[in-house]
Design a protein that fits this description.
Blueprint lengths: L1 H11 L37 E6 L2 E6 H12 L6 H19 L4 E3 H4 L6 H8 L1 H16 L4 E5 L2 E2 L4 E2 L31 E6 L1 H9 L16 E6 L5 E6 L2 E4 H8 L6 E6 L2 E7 L7 E2 H9 L4 H8 L4 E4 L1
Parallel strand pairs: 1-3, 6-13
Antiparallel strand pairs: 1-2, 4-5, 4-14, 7-12, 8-9, 9-10, 11-12
């Protein structure tokens, strides 16, 4: 699960990730309100769930509720609506509690989660917006304090993406809480539709770089590219290139695409790849939720739009 969450975090932040090249864990400057008395934070107390951060060899127990603010800063634009931010806070908390597996503490490194420091937040939002946007994230955490999502009594794998291709995806019987949801608001997301253009030579080189690839030549492309299977939401599951069949994600990552919902076409002597959506398309869609919130839905309703058979409880 950890590795999958890392991948989804990276993919969900496109194009947002282009402004987050400097994101990382809490190395160096500590985010405001996190773990330092001088910064207004507080050490963990007995019985409180905490994340153990390590800075310059010093361990600090940071209460999960405080740790969530810089996590959200890395996961979702802080200017999204308050109900969408609350939904994301519940998802992030669910992930942390799931990784803790009943323990009271966990090391930050074991979570594989990006967080932003104060300087990184200022760089992302601008100094004039820092106070209001930080406060928006902190409020989202406070107003959902301790809340997590369960299905059949167990914490769910809280999958999310920036924007689906217009409809979210199913993921098999091991994920009874995922459902396919029409999410038209995703089409309004910045970066929802992207077009990448490759020469046949460059495309052949990229495909050849996939682990286990069967090399192809420029002369074979695009003629020997065939989408073998798409899922019901339009995402590529299997794609044959030359003599080798790849998963949709393998080709997505090789080409640096924002999602596995794509198609190829020849254009002006080159090969154009048209891609829809931002991220893997499973679970909660931040952009779709943002538009649903404008129609009056609260965070619990937003989560119920993208998940089924769930219960939001105090963890």
């Amino acid at each position: 699960m950890k590795r999958f969450m890392v991948v989804l975090t990276l993919m969900v932040l496109i194009p947002y990730v282009t402004t987050l090249a400097w994101t990382g864990r809490l190395n160096g400057e500590i985010a405001p309100g996190i773990g330092s008395q001088a910064e207004g934070g507080r050490p963990g107390t007995a019985g409180e769930r905490c994340v153990i951060t390590v800075n310059n060899g010093r361990e600090t127990a940071v209460p999960v509720e405080e740790f969530l603010v810089p996590v959200l800063a890395a996961q979702i634009p802080a200017d999204f609506g308050p109900e969408t931010l609350k939904a994301q806070a519940v998802l992030a908390r669910t992930y942390i509690y799931r990784e803790m597996d009943g323990a009271e503490t966990i090391y930050e490194e074991a979570l594989d989660m990006d967080v932003l420091s104060r300087d990184q937040m200022v760089k992302l939002w601008g100094s004039g917006n820092f106070a209001s946007r930080y406060d928006a994230l902190r409020t989202a955490v406070q107003e959902t304090e301790g809340q997590v999502i369960t299905c059949q009594g167990a914490l769910i794998e809280p999958l999310f993406c920036r924007a689906s291709a217009g409809r979210t995806r199913m993921r098999g019987e091991d994920y009874p809480y995922l459902k396919q949801t029409e999410s038209p608001g995703d089409l309004l997301a910045d970066g929802y539709l992207s077009i990448s253009v490759f020469s046949a030579e460059t495309l052949a080189e990229r495909i050849g770089g996939i682990p286990g690839a069967v090399p192809v030549t420029a002369a074979q492309l695009p003629g020997e590219i065939q989408i073998a299977e798409r899922d019901s939401a339009g995402y590529v599951k299997q794609i044959q290139i030359g003599q080798k069949t790849y998963t949709g994600e393998e080709v997505q990552y090789a080409l640096g695409l924002s999602s596995p919902c794509y198609s190829f076409e020849e254009f002006d002597g080159k090969i154009r790849v048209i891609c829809k959506g931002i991220g893997h398309g499973y679970g909660f869609s931040q952009a779709g939720a943002r538009e649903m919130e404008k129609a009056g839905k609260n965070y619990e309703e937003l989560l119920s739009c993208y998940f089924q058979n769930i219960e939001i409880i105090k963890g």
